[in-house]
Amino acid sequence: MHFTALVGDQQGKKINVELFGGSPGGRGNYAETRAFKEQFHKDDPTFLALEYKDCLTDAALLKKLLPFIGDRPVIRAHASRLAVPSTQLSFVNDTLKAAKELCEKMPDKKMPTARWLTRSDEHKNRVVYDWEPASWSRLCTRIQSIGFNVVRELLEKERATPQIGPVARMMAADAMQQEASSSRNN
Questions:
Q1: Residue where a domain terminates, one of 48, 69, 90
Q2: What are residue 76's DSSP bridge partners?
Q3: pLDDT digits over 45-76, tens only?
Q4: Could you list the residue range(s) of the whole structural domain that residue 24 is in?
Q5: What pLDDT is recorded for position 80?
Q6: Which stretches does DSSP call E strand in the chain?
Q7: In the 8-state DSSP scheme, what is residue 18?
Q8: Contact (CB, 8 A) for 47 and 18
Q9: Among 44, 66, 112, 140, fewest CB within 10 Å belongs to which?
Q10: How far apart are CA 110 and CA 116, in angstroms?
Q11: Does 176 lie in the same domain as 139?
Q12: Is the CB of residue 151 less than 8 Å from the CB of residue 111?
């Protein structure tokens, strides 16, 4: 992956980014390949080695990118109670896609509750449809990390404007809101 440095000694130059995985042993000759790459690029100021964990939060990623991009504001997509860090946009999109597919299969076309998904409490003996996987725990955990009500809200908004994706819709709505706010202030 490459990007152009915006500030510093490397301004205007292409920065060569290498993303290293999270497991120290890795697969096959991963450790050997990584050591070779780091040694090969040790004197290259345009080489940036990133750990996978550095890319999981905006704060960690910005700390690594600061010498190349300067102090930039974090771009976030907003939808009422949801602020999505830029490092999580694909996670949210993937979760919403899976939730939408689930809703399309539900008899009432609505998002079920976490209890329904996990077959707990009053749903312990519910009917299990033939299209259901053995467990919904992974999807349930993903939806819970965003919030069931927020996912329901985003899916409702997507039904109203299906031509664009949910995160793009959030970002567009946020941009329009900021534009309207700034024009009122001027």
A1: 69
A2: 85
A3: 999 988 878 877 777 888 888 898 888 766 55
A4: 2-69
A5: 47
A6: 2-4, 14-20, 47-51, 76-79, 82-85
A7: E
A8: yes
A9: 44
A10: 12
A11: yes
A12: yes
